[in-house]
């Protein structure tokens, strides 16, 4: 969809801090993170809601999310990673992952963390990236 920001990220028209990519899915850091490493996993094809995706794709989707969550558990040496399906912020199916977020998230936080840019952001992306 032309006016969908996630569709534009999926085709590379808008840059992102890419964490994982395959033919069907893309994961990248949220530019307004609620915790360090806040990640969005999307299907590259436009679906309005996760619930609109065909069954076989939902299975693959969850396997990718699981892979990324377990990667974060390993590289960040943490146990807890919260997954969240909401969907009202951007009208393109997406799943949030919040690594190490226990006790750290007050929905909607007044002050968001700085964007994953600069030297600190580069280090974080290098640590989390799976591709
Ligand atoms: Zn879209």
TrEMBL record:
Q: What is the superkingdom listed in this entry's lineage?
A: Bacteria
Q: Where is the motif (Histidine triad motif)?
A: 92-96
Gene Ontology MF: a single term: catalytic activity
Residue ranges of every copy of the HIT domain listed in the record: 5-107
SUPFAM superfamilies in the record: HIT-like
Q: Which Gene3D superfamilies match?
A: HIT-like (3.30.428.10)
A single Gene Ontology biological process assigned to it is: nucleotide metabolic process
UniProt protein name: HIT family protein
Q: Which organism is it from?
A: Candidatus Shapirobacteria bacterium CG09_land_8_20_14_0_10_38_17
Organismal lineage = Bacteria, Candidatus Shapironibacteriota
């Amino acid at each position: 969809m032309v006016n969908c920001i996630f569709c534009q990220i999926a085709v590379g028209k808008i840059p992102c801090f890419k964490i994982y990519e395959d033919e069907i899915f893309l994961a990248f850091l949220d530019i307004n993170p609620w915790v360090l490493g806040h990640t969005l996993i999307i299907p590259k094809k436009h679906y309005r809601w996760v619930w609109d995706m065909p069954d076989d794709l939902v299975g693959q989707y969850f396997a990718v999310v699981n892979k990324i969550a377990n990667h974060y558990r390993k590289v960040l040496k943490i146990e807890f990673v919260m997954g969240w399906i909401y969907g009202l912020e951007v009208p393109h199916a997406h799943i949030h992952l919040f690594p190490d977020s226990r006790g750290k998230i007050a929905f909607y936080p007044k002050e968001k963390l700085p964007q994953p840019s600069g030297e600190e952001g580069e280090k974080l992306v290098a640590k989390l990236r799976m591709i």
